[in-house]
Amino acid sequence: MKIKLLFSLILVTLTICSFKSYSQVTANAGADQSICIGSSATLTANQGTGYTYSWSTKETTRQITVTPQGTMTYFLTVTSGNQSATDNVVVTVNPLPQIYAGEDTIICYGTVASLHASGAKTYSWEPDYKLNSTIVSNPLTSTDSSLYYWVTGIDENGCKGIADSIFVYVLPSPVAYAGGNQNVCKGELLNLNAQGDLNYTYKWSPSTGLNATDSSHVVAMITATTTYTVVVTDGDGCTASDKMVATVNQLPTVNAGPNQTICNSQSVTLTANGSSIYGGVKYAWSNYSEQQTIVDTPRVTTTYIVTVMDTIPGRGCMNNDTVIVFYGACSDISQLSISNNNNTFDIYPNPSTGTFNISYSLDFETPVKIDIYNMLGEKIINLKNITEQQGKNSLVFNVPKGIYLVRFETKNNVSFRKIISAGN
To answer: Which end of the chain has fewer CB atoms surrounding its CB within 10 Å, N or C?
Structure first.
């Protein structure tokens, strides 16, 4: 009886263990997923065949596709026979990044604009016209025409945002014209005239020899060939530039010869010598002769001016020199001392805009006479004709535009100085 009862207990135990081993069911809804809003996720039950499935979406297939608008938890029930098990999977929905291309911008033609996108981790710009890069947040554009740029981006979740645009408006460049190239003789004034609209501002460079740098019309006095640049700026702040070359032609050399003294009815022979690095020269004396050598019979002390001019077409530069023929009683000539030392008196500034200063120093009381002559040898102004005491003296005078000769005479000295006036 005891043996039969023990056998029955063993049989029941084996039967129960066998039932638990072959009827156990598990459920696996797969790993959690992350998607971007508007995208779909595929959920797959990771069981084999012979099972039935029931999703919380009411679908009964092993694999389903869902498109949630927000983060969702999906439940899966797996059934085999009269046994079942449940699992869940979380689908996280990430919002799309908000892409911002920046404010519309205005640039001047020929300049560069910096674009600044935000809202994503990586970016893509189009079109690529005149961009230095299409895959950075802040590319540079040198576009020469107005256009829209579009940018999209992807955030750290891999979500791609909706493209945004920026309009780049290109202002036209002002027109700059510095004028044509010019030739000028050394020491002469040159007019530079830039052309443009009335609302333009101007800036000339270099400033060497210019009377101003911020006007459309400036005057230059230069001693060497110079390239001038004018930058014009319009009312929108846009700029443009142009250049012109001012070629300086060297003056011919000239020598009227030494001063001379004649007595009574004597004649005087004057010979000028001139040359030019460009070729031949011609002569013009203040007595209207065009010969290199002239003979004259003055009856008063006379200043002769000879002008030497280039004969090469397109040059036309000239230079002049003076010679004085002193007329008087020969018995007195030995007492007369004549000097052309420019240090006898000073004139400044020279060249000038029309106003000059004369300063001189007297070693003793003496008559002082200061006269201004034009280039024809005609006296046009007497500045002073008085007797002055020993010491320093000065005076200021004005002359119109032109080239003049200043004659400074004291008791035993005569000096000359050529001046150039740029006055009106």
So the answer is: N
Instruction: Give the residue among 130, 162, 174 at the shortest CA–CA distance from 149.
Output: 130
Average pLDDT over residues 269-276: 93
- Fold topology of 105-171: Immunoglobulin-like (2.60.40)
The reported pLDDT for the residue numbered 49 is 74
Least confident of 144-158, 185-199, 274-288: 185-199
Of 182, 221, 184, 226, which Cα lies nearest the Cα of 205? Answer: 226
Residue 333's pLDDT is 32
User: Domain 28-94 has what CATH class?
Assistant: mainly beta
Strand ordering across the sheet containing 105-108: 105-108, 164-171, 147-154, 122-126
The confidence band for 417, taking pLDDT boundaries of 50, 70 and 90, is: confident
Lateral strand order in the sheet of 413-421: 379-388, 366-373, 402-410, 413-421
Domain boundaries in the chain?
A: 28-94, 105-171, 182-248, 253-333, 342-421
Region 300-309: mean pLDDT is 92
In the numeric block, which tokens belong to residue 12? Answer: 């029941």
Q: Which pTM was predicted?
A: 0.57
Question: May I ask the CATH class of domain 182-248?
Answer: mainly beta
CA distance 184 to 190: 7
Rounded to a whole number of angstroms, the CA Rg of the chain reads 51
Q: Alpha-carbon distance 224 to 206, whole Å?
A: 13
pLDDT band at residue 418 under the 50/70/90 scheme? confident
The contacts found for 223-227 with CB under 8 angstroms, 24 or more apart, are 223/186, 223/187, 223/248, 224/248
Answer for the pair 223, 186: CB distance below 8 angstroms, yes or no.
yes
